[in-house]
Design brief:
4 helices, 8-stranded mixed sheet, about 25% helix
């Protein structure tokens, strides 16, 4: 229903052109990366987060799908308890509702909104507890899902680390994946290398996350090759 890779590609193409507060620039993009101060005010760096990605993704969504609707920070149907490991992030009737970064809706013949997809955005090669809880939410909810992960860049170990964490999360929660036809799309973007890879998963497709690296350099998106995943290179456009 929704072309997640295409929207991610358009968002990435705009992200790579953005200016920042520290260096200035001549970009036509109105959105800019802000300043972040570290080390007790001694160091200024460019703050990059998933928020810029989500904002541009939504702008492109509104252009491409004017007949669909969306919400942000949308409460989940299920209740959860989130710990720091896969084992301690669980569906819990005594827990609390979480939220999805973005949800997509259709309007039916009675003018009611029907949720069709849940989307989570993530930045950096975060810990398992941060990406794991997003995977848990996407698997537990009945709608299709998308997990869009932005990296500043990749090196010889980055993708192997990301895939290891994703596989651990998906396998840890696969018992909650009750609808065999439900899909979760995974998109990984590299900001500085201007590339993305994407794959659509069903419950029976989790082997696509079990990637074994024969070379220490395969963790770099520039070295990535896998028949289950599609590579999009903005440098060739």
């Amino acid at each position: 229903m929704i072309d997640i890779p295409e929207l991610s590609k358009k968002a990435l193409s705009r992200l790579v052109q953005m200016d920042n507060v520290i260096n200035g620039g001549y970009s036509n993009e109105q959105l800019i990366f802000p300043l972040k101060i570290q080390d007790g005010g001694k160091k200024e760096i460019v703050r990059i987060s998933e928020q810029e990605l989500r904002f541009l993704f939504i702008e492109e969504f509104k252009i491409k799908y004017p007949n669909l609707y969306y919400s942000i920070e949308t409460p989940t149907t299920w209740k959860f308890s989130f710990g720091k490991t896969v084992e301690t992030c669980i569906v819990d009737d005594n827990g609390q509702s979480a939220s999805h970064d973005m949800c997509v809706f259709e309007k039916n013949v009675t003018n009611h909104y029907v949720r069709k997809m849940n989307i989570e955005f993530k930045y950096r090669n975060s810990g398992i507890e941060k990406s794991g809880k997003d995977i848990l939410k996407l698997i537990a909810e009945e709608q299709d899902g998308a997990f869009i992960h932005l990296l500043k860049n990749t090196n010889s170990k980055t993708l192997s680390s990301v895939f290891t964490k994703l596989l651990k999360s998906f396998l840890g929660y696969q018992a909650l994946w009750t609808n065999e036809n439900k899909t979760i799309q995974v998109v990984i973007l590299s900001l500085e290398q201007k590339k993305l890879i994407h794959c659509e998963l069903r419950k029976s497709d989790l082997h696509k996350l079990a990637i074994y690296f024969s070379s220490s350099q395969v963790g770099d998106i520039n070295k990535f090759e896998n028949g289950n995943w599609t590579i999009v290179d903005l440098n060739k456009n």
